[in-house]
Write a structure and sequence with these properties.
The protein has 204 residues and is an alpha/beta fold. It has 6 helices and 10 strands.
Length: 204
């Protein structure tokens, strides 16, 4: 196994779930809620897990620390900043609460790349995956500046040290690149359930 620094898992659960019509994190997924499924999926990888949300009451049954967004802006980096600022470790691995097929081997590989960089982020033909990435605390000020300027999610990358994890690296661990699949709509939810039921999703 590649050695890696201790990191905090930062789960983003601040979306409005407008396309789904209900809270995505609480959808049934294999007999447990999607957020519970994700917690099992990352079990043992992180000494600290933070759930970044503005509706903490929805997750009162979970044994995780809840962090509220630091700013009211609807910007994806607000959640990243809020989790990273609250983390007790130098690095945090961030992912969205609607990404059911996280790949432990890919995550571990990315964690091992972190020393010497401020961001470790997958990049494939569709672009970067900034909501499945490792961030160091050196990103806090650049992220704050990016939010203030209302830049795109990757706008601050030019001001930090970025290690892109390219497609050839990703597919060594996750050939179908299911790690980045989101469950945003009822159709995507049905698709994810079919993968779960048939056992064709990426393995733990």
């Amino acid at each position: 196994m590649v050695p890696f620094p201790e990191m905090t898992a930062m789960i983003l659960a601040g979306g409005r779930s407008t396309r789904m019509g209900r809270n995505k994190a609480l959808l049934d997924f294999g007999g447990r809620t999607l957020i519970e499924y994700l917690l099992v999926r990352i079990g043992g990888l992180f000494p600290e897990i933070l759930l970044v949300t503005d509706t903490p009451e929805a997750y009162s049954s979970l044994d995780v620390q809840v962090v509220r967004d630091r700013w009211p802006q609807r910007h994806p980096l607000v959640g990243v900043y809020s989790g990273l600022a609250a983390a007790s470790t130098e690095y945090g691995f961030v992912f969205a609460c609607d990404m059911p097929f996280l790949n432990r081997d890919l995550i571990t590989y990315m964690m091992g790349l972190a020393p010497g960089y401020d961001v470790v982020v997958p990049r494939h033909a569709g672009g970067f995956e900034p909501l499945h990435a490792v961030y160091g605390k050196a990103c806090l000020d650049p992220i704050a500046q990016s939010i203030a300027r209302d830049e795109q999610t990757t706008g601050f990358f030019a001001r930090v040290r970025v290690r892109a994890v390219v497609e050839e690296e990703i597919t060594q661990f996750d050939p179908g690149m299911l790690s980045f699949s989101n469950v945003n709509t009822p159709e995507e939810y049905a698709w994810a359930l079919r993968l779960l039921e048939t056992g064709t999703q990426s393995k733990f």
